[in-house]
């Protein structure tokens, strides 16, 4: 039996269909983000999308890569502390 893209053989001989691409609504639900955030990521070139007719599709691997590239909370907190410290140093006192 040959393998087909998107189909994985299960341990018991059955086949399980693996999703290769998601609609915008499915990608938003999977990533727990809003449509606006998703479309902004696409517009900025951070997330790759494909068009099939009028339908916008997000490849599962691209969604995973984009999510993995987002900054972690530790990184965000460190950057906020550094920017607040710098702004306090630069601000004149009254």
Please tell me about this protein's structure.
By secondary structure, this protein is of the alpha+beta class. The protein has a single domain, classed as Multidrug-efflux Transporter Regulator, Chain: A, Domain 2. It contains four helices and five strands. The strands form two sheets. It has a three-stranded antiparallel β-sheet. The N and C termini lie far apart (79 Å).
Would you summarize the structure shown here?
This protein is an alpha+beta fold and 94 residues long. The chain contains four helices and five strands, in the order E-E-E-H-H-E-E-H-H. It has a single domain, classed as Multidrug-efflux Transporter Regulator, Chain: A, Domain 2.
Give me the secondary-structure category: alpha+beta
CATH class: Mainly Alpha
What's the helix-strand series? EEEHHEEHH
CATH fold annotation: Multidrug-efflux Transporter Regulator, Chain: A, Domain 2
Mean pLDDT comes to 83
Based on CA atoms alone, the radius of gyration comes out at: 21 Å
Q: Tell me the span between the first and last alpha carbons.
A: 79 Å
Number of strands: 5
CATH architectural arrangement: Orthogonal Bundle
Helix fraction? 40-55%
Low-pLDDT regions: none
Proportion of residues in β-strands: 15-25%
Q: What is the topology, as strand order, of the major beta sheet?
A: 3-5-4
Global shape:
flat
Largest sheet: 3 strands, antiparallel
Number of helices: 4
């Amino acid at each position: 039996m040959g393998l087909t893209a998107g189909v994985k053989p299960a341990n018991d001989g059955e086949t399980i269909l693996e999703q290769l691409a998601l609609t915008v609504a499915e990608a938003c639900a999977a990533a727990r983000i809003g449509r606006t955030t998703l479309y902004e990521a696409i517009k900025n070139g951070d997330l790759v999308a494909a068009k099939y007719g009028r339908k916008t599709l997000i490849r599962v691997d691209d969604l995973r890569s984009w999510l993995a590239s987002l900054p972690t909370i530790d990184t965000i907190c460190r950057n906020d502390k550094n920017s607040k410290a710098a702004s306090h140093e630069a601000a004149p006192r009254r």
